[in-house]
Amino acid sequence: MAASEYPVKSEILARVMQTNPVVIRRILGRLRDCDLVRSEKGHGGGWTLACNLEVVTLRDIHVALGAPGLIAIGNRNETPSCLVEKAVNAALNDTFKEAEALLLDRFGRVTLATLSTEFHAGMLRHRGRNRQEHAHEER
């Protein structure tokens, strides 16, 4: 969306991200609620960015999306009767909290501008490889 001068339809975003447009609209709706994107209805409508890429971080996006859990593993039993399992759970809980804090700290240091720059650099490298492969095929 940052590179487009026109609103981008959720169907196009969904195709690029290989998901359903409903999923994209749901996500973008939450981002709109936090004033990170705008939506325009009707012919020529779609989604546009409403934020400064230099300021907004991955942590801001994470919070806008409801701060979903970052670590998918957890305790097998949250209220075990076994004392060993209780001790293991306590140790794991502290470790999970520390890991999540580290992730959130890192998310807070990655701006959307950084991601945009890295994306465009990757696109240039990808195009360069494709040109080299194509030139090699023509020989």
Ordered list of secondary-structure elements with their pairings:
Layout: H1 10-17, H2 21-33, E1 37-40, E2 46-49, H3 58-64, H4 83-107, H5 112-138
Helix pairs in contact: 1-2, 3-4
Structure description:
α3 (58-64) crosses α4 (83-107). The mean pLDDT is 90. The protein has a two-stranded antiparallel ribbon with strand order 1-2. The chain folds into two domains: 1-51, Orthogonal Bundle (Arc Repressor Mutant, subunit A); 69-139, no CATH class. The protein contains five helices and two strands. The chain is elongated and about 60 Å long. With 139 residues, the protein is mostly helical. The protein has helices spanning 10-17, 21-33, 58-64, 83-107, 112-138; strands spanning 37-40, 46-49.
Notable traits:
mainly alpha; Arc Repressor Mutant, subunit A; two-stranded antiparallel ribbon; 5 helices; 58% helix; 6% strand; elongated; WH-like_DNA-bd_sf; WH_DNA-bd_sf; Tscrpt_reg_Rrf2
Summarize the structure.
With 139 residues, this protein is mainly alpha-helical.
Biggest β-sheet: strands ordered side by side in the sheet: 1-2
Strand elements, count:
2
Total domains, how many? 2
Structural class: mainly alpha
- How would you spell out the order of helices and strands? HHEEHHH
How many angstroms does the end-to-end distance come to?
A: 38 Å
Give a quick account of the main beta sheet: strands, pairing sense, barrel closure.
2 strands, antiparallel
User: What proportion of the residues is helical, as a percent range?
Assistant: 55-70%
Overall pLDDT metric: 90
Tell me the Rg in angstroms.
21 Å
Strand content: 5-15%
Shape: elongated
Helical run tally: 5
Low-confidence segments, ≥5 residues, pLDDT <50?
A: none
